[in-house]
Amino acid sequence: MMNKKEILKLAKGFRGRAKNCIRIARERVEKALQYSYRDRRTKKRDMRSLWIQRVSAGTRQHNVSNLFSA
């Protein structure tokens, strides 16, 4: 469990009472940490998808066929 000082430090930049009211800040910080955990994985998925799209677009642009098919 985090103490009051750590929670308010993590809540810095939040809007309204979420930045200075400990009860609300605790809830908002907890939810923010859940979002950040989830979105670190989503970011990897999105970057992989974007990379595949860019490679595909580049191969079409330069008329390159699939070099890796045997």
UniProtKB/TrEMBL annotation:
Q: What does this protein do?
A: Binds directly to 23S ribosomal RNA and is necessary for the in vitro assembly process of the 50S ribosomal subunit. It is not involved in the protein synthesizing functions of that subunit.
| Any single GO BP term | translation
What NCBIfam families does the record point to?
Answer: rplT_bact
Q: Does the keyword Mitochondrion apply?
A: no
Cross-referenced CDD domains? Ribosomal_L20
Name the protein family: Belongs to the bacterial ribosomal protein bL20 family.
Q: Keywords on this record?
A: Ribonucleoprotein, Ribosomal protein, RNA-binding, rRNA-binding
Which Pfam family, any one of them, does this sequence belong to? Ribosomal_L20
- What PROSITE patterns does its record include? RIBOSOMAL_L20
Among its keywords, does the record have Lyase? no
UniProt lineage: Eukaryota, Viridiplantae, Streptophyta, Embryophyta, Tracheophyta
Classification via Gene3D superfamilies: 6.10.160.10
InterPro entries per the UniProt record, alphabetical: Ribosomal_bL20, RIBOSOMAL_L20_CS, Ribosomal_protein_bL20_C
Name of the molecule in the record: 50S ribosomal protein L20
Q: Would you tell me the Gene Ontology cellular component terms?
A: ribonucleoprotein complex; ribosome
Species whose genome carries this gene: Linum tenue
